[in-house]
Amino acid sequence: MLTINGTTRTNCSGISRRELLQIGGAGLFGMTLPGVLAAQEAQEAFAGGKAKSVIFLFLFGGPSQLETFDLKPQAKPEIRGPFKPIRCRTPDLLISEHLARLAKISDKFTVIRSMTHSYNDHSGAGHYLQTGHRWHLPVGGGFSATPQDWPSIGSVVEHLSQKQPGGMERDLASYAVLPNRLGRLQDRGQYVRPGEYGGWLGQAYNPMTTVIDKQSLKDNPYWRACADGELSFEIEGLKPVIPVSRIQERVGLLDQFEAVRTRLDLGDGDAMDLHRKRAMALISSDKTSSALNIRAESEKMRDRYGRHLFGQSCLMARRLVEAGTRFVTVHYDTADGFGWDSHRTSDDVRDHLLPTFDQGCAALLTDLDERGLLDETLVVALGEMGRTPTPNATWGRGHWSTCFPALIAGAGIRGGIVYGKSDKEAAYPDDKPVSPEDLAKTLYWSLGINPDLMLMNRENRPIPVVDGGRPLLDLFG
């Protein structure tokens, strides 16, 4: 089916001979043949994919491969680190003693031990992992998102969803980011880290992003139990339409929903721009407001995930994919200034980072499996880089993008295996290197999106959604 200026024309191939002649001549309303084919391909997206949804757990800062999924007990003492490997259900997987919950269910996931790229910088590497494209700025050339950035994988999913018949009428966003935009909890929130936005594709394909505040500048809600009043999961950008008194009371989303709906009925939404109107439409839908109500979960289930911000965000991700969101990113951000970016010491890795990640991720995989959703949900957990094999005196490690691990599960992924191999110091891939392009194409392919899809850029020219790489089909059963 092809729709141009509201007119729908169909035949067996989807494009008529007359249309092809028009396109091949002066062009059809400025649209080239690749553009028409891309539009048709957008309508055919999500057909036959192994995954209905993706949950992308992004551990920003760069978890150490030597303290998580690629321990090297036979390496030199100054390399191997302070943690020991423990038994798990995966042959050849040397998993940290502080990931005991994941060790017990390692038959549900694959560990890629050979992720690699050369952009050894947080912002640029974060852009690379979330888009499949190198950032247009050089290493050290910037910290925040720009309009020239490549659209995130989630934004492409949102774009294709909106282009489908009835896509603009969906009462739930196809792409969501939890619990905050990346960088919002870093220092005073001045960094708007790149990678998760629509970029040159347009703001209409930015994620539906929630907001969870810190209690103070030094507070880290990822490492402590959060009260219900904090876990409102408000949609970013809608606070101004809520009375200040209600914001201060930190009411849950259900109360906000009623306040927003009332104001919409009074016509206050007419003055808002298109992006804000779309957000208002989402929050005024029963499906969105219901999905974002964390209090609807049982106390037992919430305890299972952990009452910390990462655990509750993983639970919210499950609620969103259960409701129909196609791509959910959960950021485990560096709220304390370091976090996974463990330059100083491994103490926080041991005491906070690994235990909270272990609890939240293991609960998510088990919960999805018990609900019959793991077969149709692809779960990915990784950072934007790893850490230097050589540590400092207190086991802090520096940036190291040439070798780091990724956990991948669900949607037909073969569990209980490792993919790729690092060298004896976990410094470089020794077998089956995996690039951000490979990972991006794997995610697109799993969702039923052609990994060689062409997008129309701002100059109305077709460019590949990912330039290079290949989907890792041998990960799937």
Automatic annotation (TrEMBL):
What PROSITE patterns does the annotation carry?
TAT (PS51318)
- List the PANTHER family hit by this protein, alphabetically: BLL7424 PROTEIN, DUF1501 DOMAIN-CONTAINING PROTEIN
Kindly provide the name given to this protein in its UniProt entry: Sulfatase
Native species = Brevifollis gellanilyticus
